[in-house]
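quick one: FE2/S2 (inorganic) cluster bound model?
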Amino acid sequence: MTKRPRQPVCTRRELDETPFLIRAIHFKNQPTSAIVFAFEGIAYSYINHCMHMNRPLNCEQDAVFDDTGKYLRCSMHGFIFDPTTGECQSPVCLGQRLQALRLEEIDGTLYFAEKHLILSA
Ligand code: FES
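yep, here:
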């Protein structure tokens, strides 16, 4: 079986210099996008899809964090999420989670480590 080449997301340096990155991807054969960010020194990635009304978190504003920088925030209706787990903290979707995407860091470059994910061109 042929192994798919690693899919580079960005360098660690790029991630440390920006609040977040968006990458166009296909996940489980569906076109979508991924949010990638560093929080308290750790890199995280989630499918950019709010479960409330199926919108990208940055659909209304070019931001995915709230003003405190402690929570991810969907700009459609303001629901907030724990950036370390993707768990929604707002009552309507309390406990539901953003789809996490595994990352691996090798020699200063971050890669998606998901079997069913393909980076779009
Ligand atoms: S669509 Fe995200 S909070 Fe409503």
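The chain has a mean pLDDT of 95.
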